[in-house]
């Protein structure tokens, strides 16, 4: 508990007497400072007992009022005037007493035989005692936290011990922000704006942290981000002193879990190998997935390429991270590649972006479990496209051509499209001819469907297509010409997506 002005007054050795402001003796005293300046405010930090002998202070009401106001503006919590036979004053002067009373500032007199240093020593001895008590309390709380962690009950007992000791709620999330443990307060999700802070730490990694009023997020893990600690509540100095120890204990537990899960990760990697074996039948593949707990109706293959310069350890770490983030998924690493079969409902792009940022990755088509091998093969083929685009490439039955166009040189494709469609742009700045051509090509060369989609009469569509052939010099009944125009339209679409 902080030292109060009333506590100092209660010290008989100091011989302090209250002469004004007695109604405000509950103010804390953070330091004791002696000064004879008539404007001491700029030299104060706040919370001081300001002591003076009044050597330079004019004893008139205006001067005393200015002195007290300046001390109050600097943060002083009380004033003390030294008295003595060889000092200017034998009792508190009336103008100073009146100014202190008017400002509500406690004014004390110091006994004749008491030097200011005695008051200063008393204040700092009280602070040292308070700090020692705080450290002892912190050690005792840390001991309880360590005992809870050593008991082997996982994360929750440690979080419970923390919340009981500090009153600050605590949650642990995985690297994607999903809560995996909470204290016993009954709140299963962090409150406030924790999602934003969690996202910032998740993106920045193991060397980051984030703080907001009443919230704090700390990373957990040794060399890699294994999870995050979310603290919610009013964190005073005592609680803040304990945070590094709590982070260390929780990080050790998450690293222990990571090591303990290694045999299971190897087992699941072997299951993936069995799933991809050419001799495995469709029924056996379904059994493998069921045994892995992957009960999704559809699955998809995922392949991530880890830069060779990062070494094989990097691929193993990413495979382990993905295994943690993808419940039920089958994952293994082969050299510099990480292969996985996951439920098709998983937001794979988010997982890859978080755990393998910048790595080329392919995501195969959703398929029945028995066809997982084909989806993974498709994903492997998409890695080359991902290298060119700089983002994960996802197989989509309606965009196969778009994936191929992504491999082409952008300027060359744009030039190709302009060479074929430029005459239409010049003849029809409104773009209606080009839109008619694109709709006709997309509809399987159907006059009626083109007319329906564009809200035109079929004869109008025919007339526009005849005009397109005249302007471009290409025949729509010629396979090569039709393909060239189709490729030009698709190239322009691909350019607009960038």
UniProtKB/TrEMBL annotation:
Residues covered by the Purine catabolism PurC-like domain: 7-125
Signal peptide start-end: none
Domain PucR C-terminal helix-turn-helix: 433-491
Database matches in InterPro entries: CdaR-like_regulators (IPR051448), PucR_C-HTH_dom (IPR025736), PucR_C-HTH_sf (IPR042070), PucR_dom (IPR012914)
Protein name: PucR family transcriptional regulator
Organism, as annotated: Streptomyces cadmiisoli
